[in-house]
Amino acid sequence: MFEEAQYFAPVATRDDGSIEVELGAGHPGFADPVYRARRNAIAALAVGYVPGTPIPTAEYTDQEHEVWALVSRELGLKHHKYATAEYLRATERLGLPAERIPQLQEVSELLEPLTGFRYVPAAGLVPLREFYGVLEDGFFHSTQYIRHHSTPLYTPEPDVIHEVIGHANALASDRYSRLYRLAGAAARRVEGKEALEFISKIFWFTMEFGVMTDQGELRAYGAGILSSYGEIEEFRGMDIRPLDIAAMGTTHYDITKYQDVLFRAESLEHLEDVVGDFWATCDDESITRLIADVR
Q: What one-character-per-residue DSSP string does 222-277 give?
């Protein structure tokens, strides 16, 4: 229900140098001064981060750890029912803590020996080209804050649960992580805005909201589905379409609601052949032709 690299809460630096996360009036934490102060402090950690140094530690509260433990437990049960075998193997391989929020530095130290990926803290908006481009180098931009405790099974914006349970588990897979890197290489290769947005839509309909035939049934591998307590129960009832590059790259989606159009790969090999090969070879000219064919 949100787009990676498009964060709903703008982050502002005030005249006195302080950092403020501008939550919307409909945000569950809008009227909670303690939560807002926490969000500001955690955003300041990312703003002050120096690339190449250890990621600053976010001092999470017991209440925040409890939210993680609850969601981690509930999602874990649903993953066995709805997630692909590759995602489940990668989850076991990574071994995230279930009872506490892991620090991003810790996630990096778990991931890097497996697939070379490392996390980079993000305070707020990350431009598309930067977010996708560094994937080629094995870097993943991630928020550090966690959703408001009053709605532990819902968040209006990507939080550490989405970024880590959704993406880090996938990034622990050699095969999924290769697709992330190919997406990054494609984003760096193209020059035009239209081509970059086309690539980002392919990412949206695959690594964020991808589904595939697996173990004889429709299962999810996209981080947006696998980190959403509600959406994971609904995806099988959506408009499921065949995996198609031109269709995915030109299909409009609404980030504020459950995704009602999803694209199905017939297997992981099919995903690699279609999407992986596209990201490995696409350029501005080839994407322009694909868009023209649809129009």
A: -HHHHT-TTGGGTGGGSEEEE--HHHHHH----TTS---EEEEESSHHHHIIIIIH
Of the residues 167, 177, 200, 228, only one is catalytic, namely 167
- The whole-angstrom separation of Cα 8 and Cα 207 is 20
Question: How far is the C-alpha of 10 from the C-alpha of 40, rounded, in Å?
Answer: 11
Q: Are 171 and 163 in contact (CB under 8 A)?
A: no
From the list 3, 64, 163, 208, the catalytic residue is 208
Query: Using one digit for the tens of pLDDT, what is the confidence trace for 40-79?
Result: 999 999 999 999 999 999 999 999 999 999 999 999 999 9
* Residue 270 falls in the annotated catalytic set: no
Per residue in 194-218, pLDDT (tens digit) is 999 999 999 999 999 999 999 999 9
The yes-or-no answer on residue 167 being catalytic is yes
Partner residues linked to 264 by β-bridges: 211, 242
Catalytic residue among 72, 142, 177, 227: 227
Biggest alpha carbon distance in the chain? 58
For residues 142 and 46, the answer to whether their CB atoms sit within 8 Å is: no
Question: Is 79 annotated as catalytic?
Answer: no
Enumerate residues 6+ apart whose C-beta is below 8 A from 53: none
Q: Active site includes 227?
A: yes
Kindly name the residue from 27, 162, 163, 200 that is annotated as catalytic.
162
